Amino acid sequence: MELISPTEFAKETVQTVEDYSLLAGQSIANLFRHPRYFADMLQQADLIGVGSLPIVVLTGFFTGAVLALNSSTTLQRFGSLSLLGQLVSVGMVRELGPVLTGLMVAGRNSSGMASELGSMVVTEQIDAMRALGTDPAKKLITPRVVSTVFMLFFLTIISDLLGLFGGGAVARALLGMDWHQYWSTAWQALTFQDVFMGLVKPLLFGFIISTVGCYYGISARGGTQGVGRATTQAVVASSVFILLVDFFATKFLMAIFGYH
Amino acid sequence: MAAPPSAILERVPSEPQAAGKVIVFENVSIAFEDKPVLNGISFCLPKGESKAIFGVAGSGKSTILKLALGLLKPDSGHIYVLGEDVTQMSEDALFEIRRKVGIVFQESALFDSLTVRENVAFRLLEEGDISDDEIEKRVREALSFVELENTVDKFPAELSGGMRRRVAIARAIITQPEVLLYDSPTGGLDPVTSTTIVQLIVKQRDVYKTSSLLVTHRLQDAFIMATHYFDRKANEMRPLPPGTRSEVPMAFLILRDGKVIFDGDAHELAQSKDEYIREYIS
Lengths: 260, 282
Ligand SMILES: Nc1ncnc2c1ncn2[C@@H]1O[C@H](COP(=O)(O)OP(=O)(O)O)[C@@H](O)[C@H]1O
Ligand SMILES: [Mg+2]
Prior knowledge:
The complex is a heterodimer of chains A (260) and B (282). Chain A is mostly helical and 260 residues long.
């Protein structure tokens, strides 16, 4: 990378934020404009949802399992191992399920979108699409955003459930706990606030993953090398963005629900 | 993304001098990242004429075609396409103009996730209100024009470079546009395949009398176009009898350092005293 002056850097950053916001705003505005591409949405939903299922199942299960394993030593020290179910369920549903699913899907699909759209840019397919009277924002970006938000919501639920299940498996097989007791404490511990918080996050993360992936793809320049760069940047930016937004969303929702 | 500004107040009425001309460039300049590429160029494409644009790589030939379609906006100057100023139009308004202008991109730019059929039918499929039978019929027609009917179910990656170029031509002509823009249609092809492509361009020109802008770095392609006609009975390209001219006249335009240094017909080109041009055509 060549060195650039601070003012140049600031200018570029402002431009990037501006362009990204424009794209993100447009992707939503296009939902209310014709034509809408339902077939493309379904295709993307299949690619993102069904395609990501195996990794989400695996991460969910093992995160729950390792969470149970780690917490068990601490809980045992205080003689309150019976709280294990509660700890796993709140941890999974509020935080780990949404964030880890978001990060996994970011790694898989944000990069996928950046490289696909990036290749289309450098091979002039995006120009060709516009020349043939189709708005790439409507045909390519909006369907990806809608499908990612929608599918990430359900993937997160699946991941949460498998996390609980993984925790339960550890509780029973390694810690000799009662299966029934684990589940009932796990369920009872969940409040509306926890579930709400855990389900708002995937909506935000899905939006981040798809808009960041599409943004880096559509702004790719400079041949195949540029596409490679766009792909890496998309994963890095969407992952960091997810973690930042996670913190602020948690803080905000806690304030709303009056946690202290 | 290079999205054009959406808030265009009103459409500027077309200039009177644009009459009878399908494309007019008026003092158009554009720079990329402070590097000027076109520097106040003006030319026009009269209706029913073919114009070949020459220039070394990077001289802005592709940029001219993209400007004409409104895919890029110039920094200054005006561009009239079919009488309308495309520099002042919103993207939505441009879609109307683009229906009447076909383009063949440099590397074909076929959608590689779609089959040849879907590529060729793209515009019709997007417009929606056309029956499947009608679409199929028109796809077959367009593909038979480029003699590639047997590839409908293939994907672009399965085709050779020359075949991809022909599919791109089929995709551009399926709606019978009034103007065609070809971006280096023979670039990167072997001489035999190049001749096939030139023959198709001549066929398109003589059968449909379409006006066209043709970017090329091979002068001989343009000379073949100027000196041949398409014989529909024999279904092949033939040399024009000496002393006659093609029904669709051929003009030449040469770019250098962001300026138009030559704009005229083959005869004028041969007479030119400019050293750069002499070297170019020799
Ligand atoms: N979108 C773009 N961004 C930055 N530079 C560009 C862009 N398009 C073209 N250029 C630059 O403009 C110059 C002319 O490009 P082009 O019109 O493609 O030339 P050619 O005559 O070879 O077709 C080149 O130097 C190219 O690098
Ligand atoms: Mg070019």
